[in-house]
Design brief:
The complex is a heterodimer of chains A (89) and B (90).
Chain A (H helix, E strand, L loop, with lengths): L1 E10 L11 E7 L11 E5 L8 E6 L16 E6 L8
Parallel strand pairs in A: 3-5
Antiparallel strand pairs in A: 1-2, 1-4, 2-3, 4-5
Chain B lengths: L1 E9 L13 E7 L5 E10 L8 E6 L16 E6 L2 E4 L3
The chains are: A mainly beta (89), B mainly beta (90).
Chain lengths: 89, 90
């Protein structure tokens, strides 16, 4: 899993039928010090994350698991909203 | 998923037999403001996308997670046509 910040939402009427009804968010991967790292990606969201929230997400085939469907064309899924991170120095 | 713009169609007569009947499109990756990036991908079309449309591309093993592509040698598929997106980076 990796950390990201939700920076936007995407609307698509025509899509894979297994993606119907799922919310898709634009997320910017970030480091633990909350600096942007890499390019934004689009992820399915089953936890109800909102704009500006820090989340963690899974990629690849594992992104289909939280959707509770046999199949779906998702390669990134938000799996949790981060409340707090504590780092040991 | 990554954002892209359909810039062309690909035809191939000789190919893996499991790919027969699949429509292949050339998709240029784009930024969130639709500005083109330098990279592109050949992707299976599962939604009926056309040239010039902004689409979402699903990559890797997830690209086989549809009735159309299950068990086939594909690693990129167009999974949605984007109507609108809303970004606030602040």
């Amino acid at each position: 899993m990796n950390l990201a910040k939700v920076i936007g939402t995407i609307w698509a009427t025509k899509k894979d039928k297994n993606l119907e009804g799922l919310k898709m968010q634009i997320i910017q991967p970030i480091t633990v010090s909350r600096e942007n790292t890499g390019e934004p990606i689009i992820a399915t969201d089953t936890v109800g994350a909102g704009q500006g929230e820090v989340v963690y997400y899974v990629t690849a085939y594992e992104a289909v698991i939280p959707l509770n469907k046999k199949m779906a064309l998702s390669d990134a899924s938000i799996v949790g909203i981060v409340d707090h991170i504590e780092l040991e120095q | 998923m990554q954002l892209g713009k359909v810039i062309g169609t690909l035809w191939a007569t000789r190919k893996d037999e499991k790919l027969t009947g699949l429509k292949m499109l050339i998709v240029r990756h784009v930024e969130l403001d639709y500005k083109p990036k330098s990279s592109y991908v050949v992707a299976v079309d599962s939604v009926g996308a056309g040239a010039g449309e902004i689409v979402l591309v699903t990559s890797g093993s997830s690209a086989r997670q549809s009735e159309l592509t299950e068990g086939k040698p594909v690693d990129a598929v167009i999974s949605a046509i984007v109507d609108k997106l809303d970004v606030d980076k602040t």
